[in-house]
Amino acid sequence: MGKILGAYLLPHPPIVISEIGRGEESKTANTIRAMKQVASDIGKKKPDTIILVTPHGPMFSDAIAISYEKTLKGSFERFGNSDLAYTFSNDLELVDKIVRNAGDVDVVCAKVDKEFAKEYGVSAELDHGALVPLYFINNEYKDFNLVHITYGLLSPIELYKFGMAINKSINETLKDVVFIASGDLSHKLTKDAPAGYNARGRDFDEEIVYLLEKGNFEGIMTIEPEFAEAAGECGLRSLQIMCGLLDDYNTTSEVHSYEGPFGVGYCVASIDVLEKSDRHKLLQKLIQREKETIKNIRNNEDEYVKLARNSLEFYVKNKRKMNMPENLPSTMLNEKAGVFVSIKKDGKLRGCIGTIQPSEENIAKEIIENAVKAGADDPRFYPVEQDELDKLIYSVDILKKPEEVISIDELDVYKYGVIVKKGNKTGLLLPALDGIDTPEQQVSIALQKAGINPTEGYSLYRFEVERHG
């Protein structure tokens, strides 16, 4: 039976590497010291294989990507140093076991070789999310095979199950394994941070550090997606896979360092694996928690949200649109307005379609039509399937009449949505969206949606909404 020797959270800013930082790395002295300490610890453990999960390889919304070339290569050429190049042997035996065991729990894995990479327009090279931790480890220890995984945009429960599948796969071998969760924390700690500033970024980092110090895996698994999105992080999903990996073990943990000198949070932590435990009960707690959350949301739906949900559910199950229900409020039957229906699954957008101006005889009909379009016709997503319906969360925005504004100073991202127009190009963004903190962001995204160059002259409008859900 294989053995998990330890698990680690490691950040991946290339600037911590002296050949790239060229002096700037001195601002990350605590991180460098901690990463060297972890690398030394791994060298002493002498694992047969290192499994590394990164956010920066081929990313899919519905699958985990696993490198499937016999030899894994990568360099820091993108960061100005092509001499820092690395080659590792892929542990294909373990990869095949992971793919099979993940499939048994309905988690899809994409085996990324050169042919796959070419077909999907992604890279088969090792990314910097892998290379930065491996740079430090390779300086201490070289006699290991590598499994290179890029997490997908899956739900926490799916990521936890995937971690459990890795655990099972290791147990089916005779190999000693170390697990690396590669990820930075908030990218929005300061006003000059690369992703801009969000006050919740610091709160997120403090929460993650606290949970790691306490070894509180349940807390890591139940962080609200909106909280993580506001923080602009890239490490949470790696950690959630790690939680699943350590599902049936007692553990102790230590945070070796945390700092954010460039407006991005870097945390180095280690998890020591002890004896077996009954922690696997956490999965059932997570599933039950999800069911209770959905139940509470359903119980508090108003007529607008309930109509949107009923419309899409009827369409998916019957392949036709529902008739107008009886006993709807008079405002829904007697008034017209533009309507946007938004659908989320596991905290992430699953579809959003709407009308700026009314196109139906009343608001109710507008909701019925746009709910179906949001679930079946949003080109960014595949159509909603029946087995997803119980996990979907709906909101309905009734648009008030837009008014033209002269300056971006007249906008408020929490109060007003925006519309940009240039000729026959139009882009709209609703108010109070997760991760949108400034009017500049709001207008920029609306322009991108419309395909309007920001240097072009365009008309700018603001509008308020009546939000349901």
UniProtKB/TrEMBL annotation:
It comes from the Bacteria. Transmembrane segments: none annotated. GO terms for molecular function: ferrous iron binding; oxidoreductase activity, acting on single donors with incorporation of molecular oxygen, incorporation of two atoms of oxygen. Gene3D superfamilies: Hypothetical protein ph0010, domain 1 (3.30.700.20), LigB-like (3.40.830.10). This is AMMECR1 domain-containing protein. It comes from Caldisalinibacter kiritimatiensis. NCBIfam families: AmmeMemoSam_A (TIGR04335), AmmeMemoSam_B (TIGR04336), TIGR00296 family protein (TIGR00296). Residues 299-469 form the AMMECR1 domain.
